[in-house]
Write a structure and sequence with these properties.
The chain is an alpha/beta fold and 339 residues long. The chain is built from 14 helices and 13 strands. The longest helix is centred in the C-terminal third of the chain and has 19 residues. The protein is globular, with a radius of gyration of 22 Å. The N terminus is likely disordered.
Length: 339
């Protein structure tokens, strides 16, 4: 249930601190919340406090030290509107020599989050903070997102969580999960919109020079930035798809190129990339169309043709599916040069 703007205590935001926490996860949302007071005529807004195990300075992943406002025990005695849980990572080298990002979830922090969540109206994670929520059992049976680089880890370690690595943020009841660092601003704006209305959120977004409320289902990363597959055959297939987007690219054609059956191809791509061939191809075509809309004055008809959509209607349907917008609206918002 959304809090009333006339009840400031309902808008107490407690941000969890611990050694190694990602600095931007901690500082990003408060910037959004601070602008709310500037944009409202009354005193309504959020009161943000930082909570840690003790009052000693906390060293972030960037080496910057932050002073807590109160301890976890003190926070447990407050009426919390939003509990915001940032994340922390380390880089590990796998047996194959690949360096990979690994999300951390300190059991002591997990216990504290579980306790505080019981006294909180709304729980939110930023980036890999979703791993802490999952470890606390707060995401069981729920759909959730996290940074794409740790999504497979989250799914493997917490099979009761329905992990969706694509959206920039997801809301499941009173539990919100966000993807990357920049996505935490989108999520914070969505919280402002829920609590104080879209008009106020729009004013805050303008102060941030942001596109208000990128749809929560918008993809958090571009197709070329997806995790590299573990087999050379799939990497070669991805490059083949990128080079031939304007062509039909049927599953049978791709299977023949990869020297496997159509059924094998579908199974391989699902295992390696988590999607079907059709979904991956459409994603790649949308990505190329996005680039064309941002940087050229090509007509929609030409973009539809060169990106393999064939017709403008197909292009529009793909954009609505993937980005919840139209090509024309996307160009208007994200154009990076003048024709």
């Amino acid at each position: 249930m959304a809090a009333s703007a006339s009840s400031p205590m309902d808008h107490l935001v407690v941000i969890v601190l611990f050694d190694g926490v990602d600095l931007l996860d901690v500082t990003g949302p408060p910037e959004v919340f601070a602008l709310l007071r500037r944009e409202t005529e009354d005193a309504a807004g959020y009161r943000v406090v930082l909570a840690a195990e003790t009052m000693d300075p906390v060293t972030t992943s960037a080496g910057v030290r932050i002073l807590p406002d109160l301890t976890f025990d003190e926070a447990a005695g407050r009426r919390i509107g939003t509990l915001l849980v940032p994340g922390s990572v380390e880089v590990q080298t796998d047996a194959d020599g690949q360096r990979r990002v690994h999300a951390l979830a300190d059991p002591a922090v997990v216990d504290r989050v579980r306790t505080l969540a019981a006294r909180t109206r709304r729980v939110t994670s930023v980036c890999v903070g979703a791993h802490i929520l999952a470890a606390a059992g707060l995401l069981d049976g729920k759909r959730a997102t996290t940074h794409w680089s740790t999504a497979r880890q989250l799914a493997a370690e917490h099979p009761l969580v329905e992990v969706d690595a694509d959206p920039i943020f997801i809301r499941e009841g009173d539990v919100w999960t966000g993807a990357g660092i920049s996505a935490c601003l989108d999520l914070s704006l969505a919280l402002v919109a829920e609590d104080f209305g879209e008009t106020v959120a729009l004013r805050v977004a303008r102060q941030l020079v942001m596109y208000l409320k990128r749809p929560s289902g918008q993809s958090q990363f571009s197709v070329p930035l997806e995790p590299v597959s573990t087999t050379r055959r799939v990497e070669d297939l991805r490059h083949h798809i990128t080079r031939h987007l304007a062509e039909p690219l049927t599953v049978d054609d791709l299977a023949a190129y990869a020297h496997v059956s159509s059924r094998q191809l579908t199974r391989i791509l699902k295992e390696e990339l988590g999607v079907t061939p059709g979904v991956y191809i459409e994603s790649a075509r949308v990505e190329r169309a996005r680039a064309a809309l941002e940087t050229t004055d090509d007509t929609l008809e030409r973009i539809a043709s060169t990106c393999g959509f064939g017709t403008i209607d197909t292009l529009i349907r793909a954009f609505r599916r993937r980005l919840d917008t139209t090509p024309t609206d996307y160009r208007r918002r994200f154009r990076t040069d003048t024709p």
